[in-house]
Amino acid sequence: MPENIILKNKFKKCQILQKINGGSYNYIKRALGDYAGFLSGWYDYIVNAIPPAFYCIVISEYTIILFPQLAHYSTVLSISLLVAFVLLHLSGVKNGSVIQQITSFLKVICFVALVTACFMYSGVEVPPIKTDNSIFQIGLIFGFFKSLQLIIGTYNGWNGVCFFAEENENPSKNIPKSLYSGVLLVVAIYILVNAAFFHVLPIETIAKSNLAAADVAKILFGDSGAKIVTIISIFSLISILNAFMMIPPRILYGLSRDGFFIEKGTQVNKGGTPIVALLVSSFFSLFLICIGSFEVLFSFAAFISIIVWGLAYYSLLKLRTTEPDLPRPYRSFWYPWTTIIAIIFSIALLAGFIYSDPKSFIIIVGIAIVSYPLFLVLKKQK
Predict the structure, then answer these.
(1) Which residue ranges does UniProt annotate as crossing the membrane (predicted)?
(2) Most buried pick, 28, 84, 300, 376, via CB within 10 A?
(3) Which of 164-173, 277-286, 317-326 is the least confident region?
(4) Is 242 exposed, middle or buried (0-12, 13-18, 19+ CB in 10 A)?
(5) Exposed/middle/buried for 84, CB within 10 Å: 0-12, 13-18, 19+?
(6) What single-letter DSSP state applies at residue 274?
(7) How many other CB atoms are found less than 10 A from the CB of residue 230?
(8) What dihedral do alpha carbons 358, 249, 90, 167 form, nearest 10°?
(9) Helix (H) or strand (E) holding 160
(10) CA distance 100 to 104
């Protein structure tokens, strides 16, 4: 009898691990039902399908800085870059993984070299920061939440490894390790880079700068400093673009498998790439490259991210209550308090975003209303 129970639990665990591509969508669907999963899955897809187009355009603009003669070919460069990465990922997951490792390594080396050069510089005295008691003025609060939308859009992707759980040999060990080490490394680099910049330039100059890194590099390396920062930025952006090329197809693959997208979305080639999902996502990126206007899209994506994250946090509480006997090799720290705090912060940010960007909120509500009849049709076909 005990052996049968063990085998049953192992079988249940295998069933769960076989269907975890697509990130938080799977857990929201399991905890809150098919419609919540359908809506959050498509929300999450939109969030992660916007960045590839954005990074293609930014990399092309940085390339034009290095080669001004290409100034009239910005869109062509962006599309060419997108096509190159589509071909790379069509060749298989392994090649995309190798490129990710190489570009990530080069990016870290470049940032460490820049930080070291900053601290070796004799520096300019940083004047004391003036305090301002008007921090709670309405206009400043509005600007604070508006800037947070862009910042969250910039940092989106920190949990990207979760979208590849199904392709990982030991997800219960490797995913938490990757998340913690990645976040800590990014925090360390971010703090070091800011401290290094403040060592070289006064805070007033940095506040007025459009690209602080270029101004710092110009002081350190002369007129060639801007080109050095541009090269570092290109390496950094290629690494991010490569990662985001892999995420949207995994979400679309998960949605297709559950009948929330076309059946062919589940097709995987010999290299392990969801080929149809990749091509559909790439055409969406191509469309965004052609229309531009990414500040609005990034703000909108950040808005949706908060909703998806909040639902995922709540799903953790719900699943551990409704399905307490599921195998859970990873335990959340200080559960349930950390999860509750995360939910409270998500609600606070959502309220702030609604206040600062009511148009995006109306669009999101509109998507939810329109999506329900579509969900019913797809569910009936399924």
Answers:
(1) 45-67, 73-93, 105-123, 135-158, 179-201, 228-253, 274-294, 300-317, 333-355, 361-378
(2) 28
(3) 164-173
(4) buried
(5) exposed
(6) B
(7) 19
(8) 140
(9) none
(10) 6
Amino acid at 41: G
Q: Are 82 and 264 in contact (CB under 8 A)?
A: no
- Positive or negative: CA dihedral 157, 162, 166, 170: positive
- Which amino acid is present at 358? P
Structure tokens at 243: 């990662």
Report the alpha-carbon angle 288-292-296, nearest 5. Answer: 100
DSSP 364-376: HHHHHHHHHHHHH
What span, in angstroms and rounded, lies between the C-alpha atoms of 108 and 283? 31
Q: Are 69 and 86 in contact (CB under 8 A)?
A: no
| Pairwise CA distance, residues 275 & 291, whole Å | 25
2-381: CATH number: 1.20.1740.10
Polymer length in residues for the chain? 382
> pLDDT tens digits, residue range 23-33?
788 889 989 99
Whether the model pTM is above 0.70: yes
Distances (CA, A) of 132 to 137, 140, 203, 204: 11, 11, 15, 15
**Which three-class secondary structure state does DSSP give residue 319?**
helix
Q: Is 70 exposed, middle or buried (0-12, 13-18, 19+ CB in 10 A)?
A: middle
Write out the two tokens for 320: 């551990």
In whole angstroms, give the CA distance from residue 35 to residue 171.
27
What is the C-alpha to C-alpha distance for residues 380 and 213, in angstroms, rounded to an integer?
Answer: 54
CA distance 354 to 364: 11
pLDDT in tens, 180-237: 887 888 788 778 888 888 888 887 777 777 677 778 888 888 877 778 888 888 888 8
Distance CA 103, CA 123 (A): 30
Buried b (16+ CB within 10 A) or exposed e, 46-62: bbbbbbbbbbbbbbbeb
Q: The tokens of 339 are what?
A: 């999860």
3-state secondary structure of 334: coil
Domain ranges of the chain: 2-381
Compute the Cα dihedral for 323, 329, 332, 333 and give only its sign.
positive
